[in-house]
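The passage that follows is intended for readers who have already worked through the single-chain material. We present the inputs for a multi-component assembly, then the predicted structure in tokenized form, and finally a short commentary. You are encouraged to pause after the input and sketch how you expect the pieces to fit together before reading on.
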Amino acid sequence: MTPRQKTNILLPLLLIFSIILLVILGTSVFRETKDGETRPVLNVLNWTSYLPASVIKDFETEYNIKVNYGTYSSNEELLAKIAGSKSGTYDLIFPSDYMVDLMISRDLLAPLDQTRIKNLDNLNPLFLGQPYDERNEFSLPFLLATTVFLYDSTKIDRLTSYKDLKRPELKNNLVLLDDQRIIIGAMLQAVGADMNSVKEDDLNASLEFFETIKPNIKAFDSDSPKTFFITNEVDAGLVWNAEALLAIEENPNLKLTYPAEGFTLSMDNYCLVKGGKNPDAAYLFINYLLREDVARRIVEEYPYISAVKNAETLPDAELKLILKNGSYVENVGADIKKFDKLWARYK
Amino acid sequence: MNQSPAPNYPQGRKFDVFKILFTAPVVIYATALIALPLLYIFFLSFLKSDNYGGYIFEFNLENYGAFFDSTYLGIFGKSVLIALIATAICLLISYPFAIFLRDLPERRRNFIMKLVMVPFLTNSLIRTYGLITLLRKHGLVNSALLALGVISDPLNLMYNNLGVLIGMVYTLLPFMLLPVCTAVGKVDQNLLDAASDLGANKFQRFLKIYLPLTRQGAFNGALMVFTPAIGYFFIADILGGGKAMIIGNLIKNQFLTARNWPLGAALSIIIIIFTFLLVRLYRKIGGNLDELGGS
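Having made your guess, compare it with the prediction:
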């Protein structure tokens, strides 16, 4: 069996050869794309469906900067991308409240130099100094999302409290966000607890309350709960404000209200990644997004609440009320396991 | 699987070069994309979560212990139950289909088998979204039944366990059809003729001839339906309305929301061990069948 023994040498040789070939091919492909780009490059990671493509394109032509735009669909995905990538891969990201706090504590963000943001005055001061970054050292507010009730006013009486979700006419007629912290948080608020409470009593009470509305739940969906309303699948739900407004555009009978016991706030922020290669371009981009005309274009397409003063049509008094009655999801450390297990029991 | 006799290829260096040339991509692929990630998952499953998506290098078995918590065991039980029912439905559909197909002329048989394969040309996630258009409250199925006067209120075909089952059966049925059709096609016509001559009706022929002779094919198909059915979280999410949490969702949550990779890794390893045991069982049954056939 001498020929057989030769394979032992040939196999690794061939392996090495093919790897070398792959590396050569791979690098040559990469070089081509990089050499073709003479403009400075800004690496941005943002939520999916958050910035209209035309807004990015106009920035590129106006400032002659190439925007390398990537997306993520959860804060955890963003964290994995930032923590798992080489330093300098990304310049600008848009984490939400609790993720800003978490990223600061893990030393992933670079401080923001406010003096370099000329359009700082365009920001509504109501949105500054939020609990996750009180002095705005690392973050500036971009858009605010809130959870709201959405219901068909021709079929359902006005919803104002989580207790209304128990109504028998809502049987198999509700859509809720598929998010454990938000839904458990809402049930905690329903029983009079803080939405970030990790006390066993509170969590058990929330489960008990949830059991009473469970027969009414048709589905959990975070991707596109508005579709459930547009196709007449459900008549009521707890969804994001922008989803609610987009659904109302399709069906004016739909109405939006804020739960009386409280609701979830989710603020997305401009943050610079530590070690980013092109902070100059990042500051230019932030300034551009803070322009009134640009900010207005963004909320026209994705109707969240803009942190830019004149782009937002809601009066300050109402904004104050929203910020006062809503709560942010907070980091709960190891207690996150409690939420995860409870969520499995909820479902 | 059956042990086929070693093919009589010409021996020598030339053959070895070709052999390496053709196996090298598979070896590289399997090592880099299957073996190494699996080793990483195995390693990860003994570490401790730092609650922020990272891990602490501290050996512990806590993650495996967590599985035996009643909440997680319940989810595992439910996943197995859904997968079992889906497998049973696939079997019930496959046998009549295979027996019907067996009696067709070869050209028509091949044509129908091609039709079975057509859905594979589309991504299963997209096909699952397609099912929504059919199954929802004002979807095609309900509209048609309402128009025909069969029902007076729309049926709840999705956003419940029924929807999950429909999705699982729809997606996984071809994996059952192929082995069952092959096995049924191989059954000796003489046996069936003899049974008929001796007065066996269709049902008796199925019980006494088809079933024993095709058991291995059926088990093969069952394994290929059951195993993915435990983990297909996207079907549970889309057609179950996120209400039916199966073990696949639980693992996904550990990686994407609970930031507890070690627990997710441990749950994955448990599923792999479970699947491995099923394969062992399959081999055992397959072996027994061979012995029975030989005597």
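Commentary: The two ends of chain A are 61 Å apart (CA to CA). Chain A has a mean pLDDT of 91. How closely did your sketch match?
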